Amino acid sequence: MNIIETKQLTKSYGNFTAVSDMNLHIPKGHIYGFLGPNGAGKSTTMKMFLGLTSPTFGYFTIDGKTLSSGRIPILKKIGSLIEAPAFYGNLTGEENLDIIRRILRLPKSSIGEALELTGLMEHRKRQVKKYSLGMKQRLGLAGALIGRPPILILDEPTNGLDPVGIHEIRTLIRSLPEQYDCTVLVSSHLLSEIELLADDVGILNHGHLLFEGTMEALRDYAFHAGYPADNLEETFLAMIQTDNAARKRGGFQ
Amino acid sequence: MILSLELKKLRRTGYLPIFLGGSILASAVPLVNMTVRSESFTSLPGDSFPILMDANWGMMAQLTILLVVCGCCLMYHTEYADKGDLKMNTLPIRQFSLFCGKFGVTLLAVVLSLLLQSASLAFSSIHWFADRSAGLKELVHSMGYELILLLPTLTLMLFAASLCQSMWISLGAGVILTFLGSMIHEGRLMLSLLPFAAPYRMLHAVSPEDVNTCLIICGAQTLLFAAMEMIYLDTRRKFA
User: Among the four A53, A56, A105, B142, which has the fewest Cβ within 10 Å?
Assistant: First the structure.
């Protein structure tokens, strides 16, 4: 069963199409890796799921709900970290999470739980503007995880983290579906990152979905399409380069 | 819930000290004025309250408007500085209710400021006009009237602050409008009821038939600016 589905989802800004005719299928309880170079349309798609921007054409359903039924019922199901971590720098980490907790009407214990999960417990009383980039990223994750939402949308969650932090956050995300019975949509421009995390992968370039399926299916697809199949990083690069070349030849914008 | 949430966001921003300091400054105006030149005012005929208002309200109103401008800009600066607004937009809460929360906080701060200023006027009335001191009822009516006249300025300023990601633009616009308002408030009735000019009007200086007109126009302006914010929030999402 797919918890998120899109049908011909399109987002245009004037003559520029950021997301084009996209049909995504994200199965419940899976980690779905959203992969693509910078400007491929990953963040725009995620923003549409959160109601931060409206689709120009097409639609999506999240747990059976569409945007026409309002943003609020959809947002109640989603924890998110979009672009850079967003917070109030004048408040402490704990106070930032308390604001989210109050809006979500969660018990006070949920703050401690989110802080523990992301390793921020000892820094909870420090003002966020004094946090390092990695700590801000962790706080953003804590804000997404608080209250154990059934769907997590994470836009490049390991940005700014050191190798140890990347490993910790990766392990945490990997454990989430089993621990909390949730679905994770995680974006990255690094295939090595997605390879270690995701059950399913969607590859995006210039707003077009080039491939969707399991990692195994991606290897099969690469083998049959004549792309290098031993190293997924090379598969990804070859797919993007072929698509870019085809666009140039076809005179795509 | 929204009100306490917005109050919490203002921790360590300097909002409270600014409002408190500004309110004390505005409250000090009649006290200083009466201390320095009490004879100029006590020699005037009539009740104490109109005399005190005529002598001091211009400066007090200007300081109150400046406080509203600073308060609104500071609140939205807190939202935009570290993208707190982006996080709020991804949570199950209506964006307009956050605006209403900010309106509530500013209104509360203005009420407290006006209470402090009322106390100062009451003290001046009792201390320097002991024999013809005005009643509490007159003071309450007058300050209630000023509060309603401040609402369009407050709502417009919040709307302007929500439009500008850079605090300096909304702050600059607010300061210019404050001084513009102080120049046009003595003109025609309709002109003097525009935001930033209306708070200079005083209850005792308005004819009884104009009082209701003033209140209705200010109420309508407040609703209009709130509606503009609603439309803006909706449009921003569509074109984001």
Answer: A105
Q: What φ, ψ does residue A205 adopt, rounded to 5°? A: -145, 130
Domain residue spans in chain A?
2-77+150-250, 85-149
Contacts of A73 in chain B (CB under 8 A): 92
Instruction: Mark A204-214 as b/e (b = at least 16 C-beta within 10 Å).
Output: bbbbbbbbbee
Residue ranges of alpha helices (H) inside A70-132 are 71-75, 93-104, 109-117
B185 closest CA partner among B165, B166, B205, B160: B205
DSSP-assigned beta bridge partners for residue A202: A34, A212
CA A56/CA A54 separation, integer angstroms: 6
Interface test with A, best of B78, B90, B165, B167 (most A CBs within 10 A): B90
Give me the mean pLDDT over the B96-116 stretch. Answer: 96
Domain encompassing residue B148:
2-239
Looking at this predicted complex, what is its ipTM? 0.88
Position A241, amino acid = Q
Residues of chain A below pLDDT 70? 251-253
Separation between Cα atoms, residue A99 and residue A109, nearest integer Å? 14
**pTM recorded for the entire structure:** 0.89
User: How close B22 gets to chain A, by Cα (Å)?
Assistant: 22
From B113's Cα to the closest Cα of chain A, the distance in A is 25
Domain A2-77+150-250 classified CATH 3.40.50.300?
A: yes
Q: Helices A109-117 and A133-145 meet at what angle, rounded to 10? A: 130
Q: What are phi and psi of A188, to 5 degrees?
A: -165, 160
Chain B positions in Cβ-Cβ contact with residue A143 (cut-off 8 Å): 87
Contact B11/A95, CB-based, under 8 Å? yes
Residue pLDDT, tens place only, A14-63 = 889 999 999 999 999 999 999 998 889 999 999 999 999 989 999 999 99
| Tens of pLDDT, residues B174-194 | 999 999 999 887 777 778 889
Angular region, B50: left φ>0, alpha ψ -120 to 50, beta rest = alpha
Average pLDDT, rounded, for chain B: 92
Question: What totals of helices (H) and strands (E) does chain B contain, helices first?
Answer: 9, 0
Judge: B92–A88 Cβ closer than 8 Å, yes or no: no
Residues β-bridged to residue A80: A153
Q: Distance between alpha carbon A244 and the CA centroid of its chain, in Å?
A: 24
How many folded domains does chain B comprise? Answer: 1
